[in-house]
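FAQ: What does the model actually see?

It sees only this:
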Amino acid sequence: MKVIRQQGPRGNWEMAFAGPSRPLAGLVDTYIGYDERDTAFTRRHELPGLFAVLIVNLGEPITIIDTAGYVIPVRSGDGFGAGLSEAYAVSESSGSQRGFQVMFTPLGARRFFGLPLHHLANRVFSLHDLLGAARATALIDGLQAANDWATGFRHLDAAILSRLATDADFDLAGARQTAWALRRLQQEGGRLSIAALADEVGCSRKHLAVGFREHVGIAPKTVARLLRFRQVLQLVDMAERVDWSAIAQEAGYADQSHFSNDFRQITGRSPGAYLALRLPDQVGLPVG
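And it is asked to produce this:
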């Protein structure tokens, strides 16, 4: 387990990170525990990536405005699940948040939530709606009882394993084909054409799109777009001096105009504004 603490004029953070147990490899990427206090902002854009999430709020009430524009209030002791999104969502808080987060791979999310992932794309739903009252309550109660991050992570691991034990009818073969195609896109940083990807998989572009709709939630072309965007954020983090033109070219954008438009659509802000506002977790972008 890795724990990061930061104190400064924009607030105080503690974030704990841990991987799942071996049976969940490829299904869960990371468990996160977070405790944010006295932040100088109450509204931020949550930036998209290639993970679906489960979040349990153990702090003050928050509000989520998902990518589709729906408003979801999340009380203390409540939780939600979200699929992959094409652009930012908005979170609003009092300036303090505490809770647990699971970063699911698309395959893991498809199995855990038990829904074709296009139903979750760009959306946020209550855990009680997604899992049923009994399972959601048991998951949340266990996290509320945890006296440290490690105990909470073990509870999440056990809860996910228990849920997956009930999905015997899951189409694993179809999911594995899509997961392979997704890995190929990731290996190429989103710079593999969809036609070439379909040829490598050995299927039509239509069949590939159907698989992504079911097991990823968004189209292969959108996945490629997000991969280029996430590479931009990584290059920014590594750069001593940010040269947006060079970064856009390295990430595979055809021209600066395409890059700037894409960046603003995904983050809600210009590249320059992102640089001034970004947080160390490469996810949140304070906007108010």
